[in-house]
Design goal:
- By secondary structure, the chain is α/β, with parallel strands linked by helices.
- 39% of the residues lie in helices and 17% in strands.
């Protein structure tokens, strides 16, 4: 009798009326007792035997998770046949390929996948008719031939159909432990899926191994959300519960709401899932805390820190401190397990601090599922624990120690290791050596015997320097940015044919939800800022040196592993040909085409195309204004005004940060087109914007003199100058070039948080009392910092989401004779040297008719570099002021004039900075001598 099936029958005899399987539907709950599951399984097994399907016949399953899937699997096993579960995401041709490769004689399907099943069988038949004999090879190749007289292409069977009842004295077909029970195809992160042969002994070996790790019994309920064609799901949601008398709950519709409802209502005690689910829960928690304000964030961090301390003393206060979070997983939850892809240890530590232990498991299809797991009593976060009972493991081919760890390939031996690959003796020989399975994964053991997985051998990137780079480690680091949803790191060659990668390249998927929540339209800018900041925290060999931004999602397997070969293939195709597939080549829907054909839309597209430098490809409604057409914040403002002048309308400027696509923008203009267009000579976009008066009280306050407040602030800044002269040996040059009175714009390069204080501290009284600036709400948005901003005449805006108010505030202050301090880079330097200057200063100078005073700062970066929370060292700082740059004489300046002034400003600052840097080096050399 089948070993696994025998154990299931014992449970069915002991607890016939106990619920074995449930499926949660929109209409309620569908339940099957152990007796009913046995009856359905044996009915199918009896039908297979009586229909002439001999032991060893391959029977494929293409169906969604459902109790009927389980009874079909059990029936196939009971009949002595071989179950071949297939990925439900496969198309007809992919299914046909696996049907032919496995030599399946039957294809069981549910109603949802019947159409694909029939199409696959038709394709399979065409292949057979064409003379393919591969799937009909005999037992000499390791396969079992189909029974005589059966059709050459598989028959399709609807699993919802009821099979004839089995006789009361039905007995399962006897099988040997080494006979095949299942043939599982690896979904694969490569393009070469292989059939993994799992025996009856493998199935029970896996069950016994897991029972030595956790206690699962009749009182437990397991939630099954992983697709049952996957090895981890079969182990966790079929093998274990059905040989221990437990209950399994499946979901008709898989989404977060239904999943959380099942955890809450079905008394779930154990739940195994891929990391992505726990990431979603973590993000949900973080989002709710952020929405409650700064006090809630501080309280959350404090309670998490306190609970870490109490847990170290043996008491978990998490259920008290974080009761609502614990309730998300249900009051009876005992085991939360994650596996199938990389687990982020930082998220694991956060859950630990909230009193929730998420155990990590590791295994492969080739090991019948789990091979390692962290014990509930010793959950070492970041590792995958120790080998399960009966499993041996070792590290092979470990090179000399790298970064303190001997990293090599993980090898596994034990009853859970597969028999081999179906009809692939060559592949089997490469991976199985004297009973040891070479996993292809790299890792190391710590001194306590815990395994840490570092990546895949095939995915290791070898740089030209000989450094080994593990992409998952790099990806985990850059995913610390809230603006990056997904990232895939690869090595790219500078020249074809080179054996080693010259640089690390990444494909980045932005987190558009976060970007929209924060009203950020310059996704490229904020992502670049975060990538540069995070790069500074890595050794130079581990920094990504180039990247590209994609929309959509990265291709992944069913367990959320990256299909790196697909990503790399697409990247190389894009680099090899400028004619690679682009968004413009996707077919348009009927609604999109009707929208494009409208007259006013055509007029709008003409304006957009001209603003985008005559964008070559046909414009589409879903083209991103930034990612596809390249409009930055300022260009978006100019585009909106140009469209208003063409179509009429007056879109509320606050909406600009909510318009991401061509259709968003054009529809917003059309909806507001009730107002009449202007006539005669039209002003430029910025002239139109600056002509509108502001009603912001903080901006209007720039028109008032504040002698008392300015005097107090001046004394504070003079004290800062004294301190800076002592600590940083502050030196200045070119002070005589500063105009004696305003209005004008002061434009320094930006190295550090201390820059505005250093520049302000050296200004003469007549200039200082007129200075104001525009600051980000991220720093000065609330509380004490907001009061400091008012005192220092910092106009607080979000310069990315609300560029128009920021520019209008600058123009208003200049009209009132004030002096604007503006950092033209828009961000602090990543490594000290000045970066690309933006055209905001040039626009304001041109339309306000005021000069720009260039300022170079050197040394402030060493004092407080970007990415650091506090001062780092006492380093000399120098300031140099250049000759003023006067605005263009044209009445209506445009892009050419803005660009010219911006280039001149950038060049002057760079020249002065280079001179200061040279002086600093000479001083150091002289001191060394």
């Amino acid at each position: 009798m089948a070993i696994f099936y025998h154990r299931f029958v014992e449970c069915a005899q002991e607890w016939p009326e106990r619920v074995a399987l449930e499926i949660q539907t929109r209409d309620g709950l569908e339940s099957y007792t152990y007796a009913e599951v046995r009856c359905l399984s044996e009915s199918l097994a009896h039908w297979l035997i009586s229909s002439g399907y001999a032991p060893g016949t391959r029977c494929a399953i293409l169906a969604a998770n459902h109790p009927r899937w389980v009874t079909t699997y059990l029936g196939i096993i009971a009949a002595g046949c071989i179950a071949v579960p297939l990925d439900t995401a496969s198309d007809a041709h992919q299914v046909a390929t696996l049907l032919n490769d496995s030599g399946a004689s039957l294809l069981f399907s549910d109603s949802q996948h019947l159409q694909v099943a029939h199409q696959a069988v038709e394709v399979s038949a065409q292949v057979a008719t064409a003379g393919s004999e591969s799937r009909l090879q005999t037992q000499s190749t390791g396969r079992v031939a189909p029974s005589p007289g059966l059709a050459s292409s598989p028959a399709v069977f609807d699993i919802s159909r009821t099979s004839p009842s089995a006789p009361a004295d039905f007995r399962a077909t006897p099988v040997a432990p080494d006979d095949l029970a299942a043939l599982l195809y690896t979904s694969g992160t490569t393009a070469d899926p292989k059939g993994v042969m799992l025996t009856h002994a493998n199935l029970m070996g896996e069950a016994e191994a897991v029972f030595g790790w956790v206690q699962i019994g009749p009182g437990d309920a397991l939630l099954g959300v992983l697709p049952l064609f996957h090895a981890l799901a079969q182990m966790a949601n079929l093998l274990l519960p059905l040989v221990s008398g437990s209950r399994v709950v499946y979901l008709e519709k898989l989404n977060t709401s239904e999943l959380l409802r099942a955890l809450r209502e079905r008394n779930i005690t154990a739940f195994a899932c891929v990391p992505q689910f726990f990431y979603l829960i973590h993000e949900r928690i973080q989002k709710e805390v952020r929405e409650r304000g700064k006090l809630a964030r501080v309280a959350m961090r404090a309670l998490m820190g306190l609970n870490r301390s109490t847990r170290a003393l043996g008491w978990n206060a998490g259920k008290v401190f974080f009761r609502p979070i614990h309730r998300l997983f249900g009051d009876k939850m005992r085991y939360l397990v994650t596996g199938g892809s990389r687990w982020d240890p930082e998220i694991g530590r956060d859950f630990y601090a909230m009193g929730i232990d998420i155990l990590q498991a590791y295994g492969l299809t080739e090991t019948t599922g789990g091979a390692f797991a962290t014990p509930p009593s010793d959950n070492v976060i970041g590792s995958v624990g120790k080998p399960l009972r009966g499993v041996e493991a070792r590290i092979v081919d470990a090179p000399p120690q790298q970064d303190g760890a001997a990293i090599g390939e993980i090898a596994i031996r034990g009853p859970i290791v597969m028999k081999g690959y179906w009809n692939r003796p060559d592949a089997t020989g490469q991976i199985l050596h004297n009973g040891w399975l070479l996993t292809g994964d790299l890792g190391y053991f710590d001194t306590s015997g815990n395994l840490f997985v570092t990546g895949r051998r095939k995915e290791v990137i070898v740089l030209s320097s000989g450094k080994n780079i593990y992409p998952e480690e790099i990806e985990g680091h850059y995913l610390k940015s809230p603006f990056i949803q997904e990232i895939c790191v690869m090595g790219l060659l500078s020249r074809p044919g080179q054996p080693f990668a010259e640089r690390l390249h990444a494909v980045v998927i932005p987190n558009f939800e976060i970007l929209k929540q924060r009203k950020i339209v310059n996704a490229k800018q904020v992502i670049r800022f975060d990538i540069e900041t995070l790069s500074q925290q890595l050794p130079s060999s581990k920094r990504i040196l180039s990247y590209e931004i994609w929309q959509g999602s990265l291709p992944r397997t069913t367990t959320r592993k990256l299909k790196r070969f697909e990503v790399e293939k697409r990247v190389r195709q894009r680099q090899a040909s400028e004619n690679a597939e682009s968004a413009s080549e996707r077919p348009l829907t009927g609604d999109d085409q009707a929208w494009l054909d409208e007259t006013d839309v055509q007029r709008a597209l003409s304006v957009i195309r001209q603003a985008a430098n005559n964008f070559a490809a046909p414009l589409r409604p879903d083209h991103s204004l930034e990612l596809d057409l390249g409009f930055d914040s300022m260009q978006r403002v100019e585009l909106m005004v140009a469209l208003e002048q063409e179509l009429g309308g007056n879109v509320d400027e606050s909406r600009l940060s909510q318009l991401y696509t061509v259709r968003d923008l054009v529809d917003a203009i059309r909806q507001s087109a009730g107002q009449a267009k202007g006539s005669g000579s039209q002003p430029t976009a910025w002239e139109a914007m600056f002509a509108q008066e502001t009603d912001d009280p903080e901006v209007l306050a720039l028109g008032k003199q504040r002698i008392v407040a300015a005097t107090g602030l001046f004394l504070v800044f003079r004290f800062i100058r004294v301190i800076a002269s002592d600590l940083f040996r502050l030196q200045t040059s070119g002070m005589e070039r500063i105009p004696s009175t305003g209005p004008f714009i002061v434009c320094p390069n930006h190295q550090s948080f201390v820059d505005p204080f250093l520049v302000g501290s050296v200004m003469p009284w007549a200039v200082f009392r007129e200075i104001f600036s525009v600051g980000t709400s991220e720093i000065f948005g609330s509380g004490l910092m907001r009061r400091i901003a008012r005192f220092m005449r910092v106009i607080v805006v979000d310069p990315d989401a609300n560029l128009i108010p920021a520019m209008r505030a600058g123009a208003y202050g200049l009209r009132k004779g004030r002096v604007l301090m503006l950092f033209p880079e828009g961000e602090r330097s990543i490594d000290g040297p000045p970066k690309i200057f933006k055209k905001g200063a040039a626009i304001l100078a041109a339309h306000s008719r005021v000069p720009i005073v260039p300022v170079a700062i050197e040394g402030a970066y060493e004092v407080w570099p970007r990415g650091k929370k506090f001062f780092q060292q006492l380093h000399p700082v120098k300031l140099a002021f250049g000759n003023p740059i006067y605005p263009p004489s044209t009445l209506h300046p445009g892009e050419d004039e803005y660009a010219r002034v911006t280039r001149e400003l950038e060049q002057r600052v760079m020249n002065m900075w280079t001179e200061l840097r040279s002086q600093d080096r000479q001083t150091k050399a002289h001191t060394a001598d």
